[in-house]
Specification:
single chain; alpha/beta; TIM Barrel; 8-stranded parallel β-sheet; 12 helices; 14 strands; binds flavin mononucleotide
Length: 370
């Protein structure tokens, strides 16, 4: 029977197991968005994941989401990623990069004085936006988002091209794949939402038009990476960051149909509403499973036992764990041993140093201490 430890293929890429690491923003890059040695250590520690999907990474300067999140648009950033990817490969790991544009999810910053870009400059629900940055003391805190303005047609085209440039850089530094972050109310999701996207050009209006931004960004990525190594993360039913949509099904059915037609490698379903106690996994699966024929990865509030059941009965192909990977760098080994599992320290989620980031012990370290 297929289980969490069964190998899986992504295009031409063979993965050792189905215990993937979900993308996790930890704000441990420099203020200039350059990946740090601390991040290298973090991912090397987690090289036993079937696939690491490395944290949301800004594709352009105008993606001004959370501070100290990495970018992949300057030479310095790209070189730092090269060193990180090399070390993960030397440790036997496989690593993909999540490509990100925050759009309206942005706070005032020293780096980028212009207003953030969004599909239509809808600002009547900015209080719904979650964005973190440093206060005057350098401590990471939730900040108030600032109003965005509508993108021009040229800015839309340039931002789509930025996803292609980022994918090319990711391939050149050796990443095994790239994933478009189209979930959780960031820019591609903002285009999908009829509340945030009120455009009257080719990117707004009908469900098909609202899906164009995500589709074209995906196409730009596929032009740089084999399609089987390109993925997308979606969360059709969440209203996180104010991406409201009273009827997401027609838009997402069209989107997923097109993704399948392009031979995209994997689809990750983020069950973001589980944080509020509502699980959308079943409705996400009935929306996508009949249409998308590649691997489907479930994420959000899933424990290892449930993961085994879902993979064993063929509902999904792999699971990406978030907080379990944060706190358990040897997660596959712990799953084999049926635990115990450490819990991630919430206060250390964003910003700061290696504490609460790289100091969670492995089972072997615990045993030798005992
Ligand atoms: C600290 C933190 C950072 C996150 N960063 C990202 C991110 O960069 N990209 C993303 O798509 N989701 C991000 N998420 C969502 C996680 O990938 C995942 O969906 C969430 O943790 C639920 O999965 P879990 O129950 O296995 O932890 C983040 C979540 C947390 C708690």
């Amino acid at each position: 029977m297929t289980d969490l430890f069964s190998p899986i293929k992504l295009g031409d890429l063979q993965l050792d197991n189905r215990i993937w690491m979900a993308p996790l923003t930890r704000s441990r890059a420099t203020p200039e968005r350059v990946p740090t040695p601390m991040m290298t250590e973090h991912y090397v520690q987690r090289a036993s994941a079937g696939l690491i999907i490395a944290e949301a990474t800004n594709v352009a300067l105008r993606s001004n989401a959370w501070e100290c999140t990495p970018g992949i648009f300057t030479a310095e950033q790209i070189n730092a990623w090269r060193a990180l990817v090399d070390e993960v490969h030397q440790a036997g790991g496989k690593i993909a990069l999540q490509l990100w544009h925050g759009g309206r999810v942005a706070a005032d910053s020293r780096e980028q004085p212009d207003p953030p870009l969004s599909p239509s400059g809808v600002n009547d629900n900015v209080e719904a936006i979650t964005v973190w940055g440093r206060d005057e003391q350098g401590i990471f805190r939730k900040k108030t988002a600032c109003p965005s303005r509508a993108m021009t047609g040229a800015e839309v085209e340039d931002t789509i091209a930025a996803f292609g440039r980022a994918a090319r850089a990711a391939r050149e530094v050796g990443f095994d794949g790239v994933q478009l972050h189209a979930a959780n109310g960031y820019l591609p999701h903002q285009f999908l939402s009829p509340y945030l996207n009120r455009r009257t050009d080719a990117y707004g209006g009908s469900p098909q038009a609202r899906a164009q931004f995500a589709l074209q960004a995906m196409r730009a990525m596929i032009a740089e990476f084999p399609a089987g190594r390109v993925g997308m993360r979606i969360s059709p039913f969440t209203t996180f960051n104010g991406a409201l949509d009273p009827d997401p099904i027609p838009t997402y059915r069209y989107l997923v149909d097109e993704l399948a037609r392009h031979g995209m490698g994997w689809l990750e379903l983020a069950d973001t509403n589980f944080w509020a106690g509502q699980f959308d996994r079943d409705q996400m699966l009935s929306l996508t499973r009949p249409v998308f024929d590649g691997p489907i990865i479930a994420n959000g509030g899933i424990d290892p036992q449930t993961a085994q059941t879902l993979i064993g009965n063929g509902s999904i192909d792999a699971v990406s764990f978030g907080r379990l990977w944060m706190a358990n760098p040897d997660l596959p080994e712990r799953i084999r041993a049926e635990g115990p599992y450490h819990k991630a320290i919430t206060k250390r989620f964003y910003g700061g140093g290696p504490d609460g980031y790289n100091d969670y012990p492995t089972l072997a370290q615990e045993k030798s201490l005992a």
